[in-house]
Amino acid sequence: MTTNLRGSVAIVGMGETEVGVLRGQGSSELCAEAARRALLDAGLTKGDIDGLVTCNPWVEPHLYHAEMFSEYMQIFPSFCMTLNAGGATTLTAVLRAASAIATGVCTTVLITHGDNPRTGMTASETGAKMTTTMNPQFELPYGVPLTNGYAMAGRAHMHEFGTTSEQFAQVAVSARKHASLNPAAEMREPITIADVLNSPVVADPLHALDCSLWSDGGGAVVVVAAERAQDFPNKPVFFLGCGEGHWHEHLFQARSLTATAACESGPRAFSMAGLAPEDMDFAQVYDCFTPVAIMELEDLGFCAKGEGGGFVENGNIELGGTIPINTHGGLLSHSHTGHPGTMFALTETVTQLRGDGGARQVPNAEVGLVHGQGGVLSSHATLILGTEASL
Amino acid sequence: MTNKPVPKPTPETQPFWAGCAQGELRLQHCNTCGHAQYPPRKLCSGCFGQDVAWRRASGRGKIRSWSTVVAPGAPGFEAEVPFVSVLVTLEEGPTMLSVLRDCEAADVTFDLPVEVIFEQRSDDIFVPYFKPCETG
């Protein structure tokens, strides 16, 4: 027996905290504030929630985080899980929420994430946390940070396809352009390709401005069955398709340095949605480092493999271009809150499909894609959402 | 005494680290499907068979990619930066993360031939590093 999840559920509430330097706000507190705002947006009270999905923050982790947080909220869900797929977590949460609602396990799922890695940890604590992502016997003994792993993948893409540092830089420039239109973004001052190339080399070939931010913040959404979607104060946004791909955890075990499991998660999501890349009005891709966005644009099918470098030029990925990406500013310029990072790509997708994007609104946006990646090119999840007209 | 991370062998990986201590890089080979694997596992990651045997590897490989580390990702490496992190594809097939010795970053190229060397990390742990070598 299979159940088609297309159109089965909708996001009827969303909340975002401020992002950036939020000194004095802990990760549970940010998780709670995001949840409060999402419930308010949905016109619900906490007692209406019978499904809860969280991710473990770095600053205040708990072995059973979702159970801890339901206790914190004093809610008593029938579906409760902590997910851990790094930057893919948020979207794997939506797929599990949809599955749980479609199978009758619960009716109203709150997905809430919050963390404060920017101000909640010292530099040495952050370093120590980062080492936990490494294979303890076969990576950690070399003292090679995660950034150099992404850098090696970026260099391989340059070698294999002729991608240039200027093309990497263009991803950061376009992200900043979008962030400049978003009052909620952390970094809003426009930058140029020269600014990126003149920023310090942190892990060659990556410059500081090729790297995402490091931020405090939280976000949340509320998911319900599509039949109930019209019962809420704001315009619902419908689940059209979702797919995942998981190829490795550690980079040295990667099947490829230049192609990612997005080439599987994307087609799975498009297949469920009955749509193709050219049907998307915008796409939020995971831009922890600039080469990653280029690889994902290729692997998701927005351009041919190897042509991502040229594709990001000439305004193609900006508002008004072929496929505007990261309309909120992305991890590069809006915020990177750690595991909750992709939540802001999801809430931005909801914002765009509601038509609430203000100066950064994609005109007549009906269908959008959001992609998350965790680890070092490891876990991939692709979600396609649309307005009622897209059903 | 170093404060660099010291690998803690597990039952699955102990033969690998024992080999390193004797100056040899060992890989597992599957007697059923011929697959060579790293890191060590109880079962073959090719066919999931049980008949996996340890063999001494050639210790040679080629650079698959690299990046210079200026901010180390673990304690104990502060005095060594900058150093060149590498992904090495071994002659037998698997890829290892490691660090390249005896080579300036500007001299590293794709497919540069390298061979394993070992650096002592503790009384009984030796960590495999690589250095450039002649082809063949």
Structural descriptors:
heterodimer, A: 391 residues, alpha/beta, Peroxisomal Thiolase, Chain A, domain 1, 2 domains, nine-stranded mixed β-sheet, two-stranded antiparallel sheet, 13 helices, 18% strand, B: 136 residues, mainly beta, OB fold (Dihydrolipoamide Acetyltransferase, E2P), 8 strands, globular
Which class best fits the helix and strand makeup of chain B? mainly beta
User: Which residues of chain B sit in consecutive blocks of at least 5 with pLDDT less than 50?
Assistant: none
Number of helices of chain A: 13
Number of domains as seen in the coordinates of chain B: 2
Strand order, sheet with most strands of chain B: 6-5-4-7-8
Structural class of chain A: alpha/beta
Annotated CATH architecture of the largest domain in chain B: Beta Barrel
Helix content of chain B: under 10%
In the CATH hierarchy, the third-tier topology of the largest domain in chain A is known as Peroxisomal Thiolase, Chain A, domain 1
N-to-C CA distance of chain A: 23 Å
Alpha carbon gap, first and last residue of chain B: 37 Å
Profile the largest sheet of chain A.
9 strands, mixed
